[in-house]
Amino acid sequence: MADTYLRLAQIMTPNDANVLGKVFGGSILALIDLTASAVSSKYAGTVCVTAAFDRVDFHQPVEIGELVELDGHVSYVGRTSIEVTIDVHATRLTTQERRHVNTARVVMVAIRDGSSSPVPRLICETRDEKRQYLAGRLRRELRDQRRAQMADLLEKLNACEEDRLSQLMDSTDPLAEQLWR
Ligand SMILES: CC(C)(COP(=O)(O)OP(=O)(O)OC[C@H]1O[C@@H](n2cnc3c(N)ncnc32)[C@H](O)[C@@H]1OP(=O)(O)O)[C@@H](O)C(=O)NCCC(=O)NCCS
Asked: Is the CB of 52 under 6 A from ligand 1?
């Protein structure tokens, strides 16, 4: 795992501004995607495509003129997929104040001859590397469970008559529990 780290850095320019004059979230997402692509493709030794953004929360805005640094590494691998964890920091250059902006996880898939292709096993040597790998496996398992549950629940929702939908709209009980009943 330690050998998979890569850093991408960029000063944010007025081209990256949203209407409030802060950095547009999409500009940061594009940098996260580029970092995930570089980390995963170097690791797999072939081009990797973005399958999913696991979750990205923006805790604080990034200002125009700040230096954004993205530190990415492979945190978990499946058969053909690679989870890349990216820590994003922003530095105000005039004061050198550096702060953590977010941590993103992106699932990339290795492609050869147009289809998904096996990736090397990830070697985890330290306690922290093993903890990170197992956390990635948990995310993978929970994502799969959630996708299956969501498909079941949507099937139940789609089968409801309009009266039942009105009843559900009026009720504040947890929706998933009502649909399972
Ligand atoms: C990602 C993609 C290659 C997966 O293709 P697929 O036919 O579903 O491939 P498979 O079923 O063999 O799955 C391959 C791996 O991707 C993972 N995967 C597929 N879709 C996923 C998703 N939405 N979220 C997380 N992982 C996903 C599978 O779990 C599997 O992982 P594993 O091999 O480690 O077990 C395909 O959906 C694709 O090409 N998507 C578009 C990618 C792209 O263009 N991205 C840029 C968008 S502009």
From this structure: yes
37 lines ligand 1 (CB under 6 A): no
Chain-centroid distance of CA 103 in Å reads 8
Residue ranges covered by each domain of the chain: 1-122, 124-181
Distance 47 CA to ligand 1 centre (A): 13
Running DSSP on this structure, what letter comes out for residue 23? Answer: B
Domain 1-122 = CATH 3.10.129.10: yes
Alpha-carbon distance 100 to 123, whole Å? 27
Model pTM above 0.85: yes
| Inter-residue contact 84 to 36 (CB < 8 Å) | yes
Residue among 18, 59, 56 nearest 35 (CA): 56
Residue nearest to atom 36 of ligand 1 (CA): 51
pLDDT in tens, 44-68: 999 999 999 988 888 889 999 999 9
